[in-house]
Amino acid sequence: MERAMVVGVDGSQESMAAAGWAAEEAERRGLPVRLLHAWMWQPVDVPVAQDPDGRRRAAEGLLQLAEKDLGDRYPAVRFTAEAVSETAVPALLRAAERSEMLVLGSRGYGALMGYLLGSCGQQVIGAATRPVVAVRARTEAPVRREVVVGQQGGAQLSGTVLKFAFEAAAARDATVRAVRAWTLPPVFAAGAASLQLVDEAGGLEPYEKEALEEALAPWRARYPEVPVVEQVETGSPGQVLLEAAEGAELLVVGRRARRAPIGSRIGSVAHACLHHAHCPVAVVPHG
């Protein structure tokens, strides 16, 4: 069954930028785009006229305008649009289940825009089982045809993240820049004697490079046409990735599937990238 690119649309500049990005990506991949607007009419105990039918018509009109604008700009892409009477988070999560990816507008340096105010955007990204791409309205023009991807842990853990990055790079004839950031273990945890043995063996960096090479090996073999740049660097993973992604077309980060005491967590690295990256950011749940 063909999966569509799903976009949350609410009429904001951010959501329309997300819809444009999704249309371009769908054109590259030969996929359809589904525009989704979620709205919920709730009666209020105030002496004013309430018009749920008017809300529905406004939602449908918004989608019709968006679909026409995108259809004129991307005639090769098939668009469908749907307004659902439901709150945004469950509607988007359900749509994401059947999608190639979910695309949302992002303000940057703050919460996601539109009807995804406050913690809603984080709830969607933290709970989605499919990749979610956040797109800012004023994304800087890329200066390097690169897809930057953060690789952590072993090859099995990062497989879904690398798969997404290589697919995106292949679709746009771009290079994959695979980044693995690492830090020295604290002396009180590893012990001075352990650190001395590691230093005598040549340091930790060779182990980190080997781990990155091992994780990349199956994807290099599957996508031999995609150039790969390996980058192993000491420092905070979030900061290293943000610096590596300057001027890139897309930044791809992973997210562990874990629950917080209240809601879902997206992790500190994904959180930093979503709020500070100048390019679109794809958050991919680990398989």
TrEMBL record:
Superkingdom in the source lineage: Bacteria
InterPro entries found in the cross-reference section: Rossmann-like_a/b/a_fold, Universal_stress_UspA, UspA
Entries under Pfam families matching the protein: Usp
Domain UspA: 3-136, 148-285
PANTHER family reported in the protein's UniProt record: ADENINE NUCLEOTIDE ALPHA HYDROLASES-LIKE SUPERFAMILY PROTEIN
Family of this protein: Belongs to the universal stress protein A family.
Name this polypeptide is given: UspA domain-containing protein
Organism: Streptomyces nanshensis
Lineage: Bacteria, Bacillati, Actinomycetota, Actinomycetes, Kitasatosporales
